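Example 3.2
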Amino acid sequence: MNILIIEDDAETGAYLTRGLQEAGWDVQLCTAAQEGILAVSTRDFDAVVLDRMLPGMDGVDALRLMRGAGVTTPVLMLTARTAIHDRVEGLEAGADDYLLKPFAMSELLARLKIIARRPARTPEVTEMTVGPLHINRVTRVATREGTDLDLSPLEFRLLDFLMGHAGEVVTRTILLEQVWGYRFDPKTSLVQTHMSRLRAKVDKPFDEEVIRTVRGAGYVLG
């Protein structure tokens, strides 16, 4: 197999290169996100090993750019972050699998074999429109009726999740798990506070309300 590694840490890059070459695979190592994006856009690889933490550009942002450019090569993301929302963010950006550091080379090889055998994925949806709302997941820009919404990264994730579940009642528990990565209830008004701020930006300046509170249940968009 032909594998692209995008990893800035010299020690980890050398370890990955040695392990994959010992398995009989061809390897190209890139140490910067832009270098890796160019490589995967111009050459055929069976899979990509992508580090989450890269200098200058987060691995998730690099992955969004790849998928936005139509790259369908399977991607295994490496990270030292253990929070659920970090893993969810990576998978939603287009990663085919996620492996936590430190890892065993045998597990990495097994996971790469699995994702390389999967049927080619269709290009990721990088833009979404629901009623008057539009988001671009690559540029992280949200608009309503053509007007840019000044959202924080967290507010963008909230809106993205709600738009992806338009017409469905999304509970506070689901938002805590999927947006914040909590597997427990922190017993705070965290969700209510941020939803209030989001609605102030998405609904307040406009005539029609698109995000509604369903009393005792959660929130619904659309």
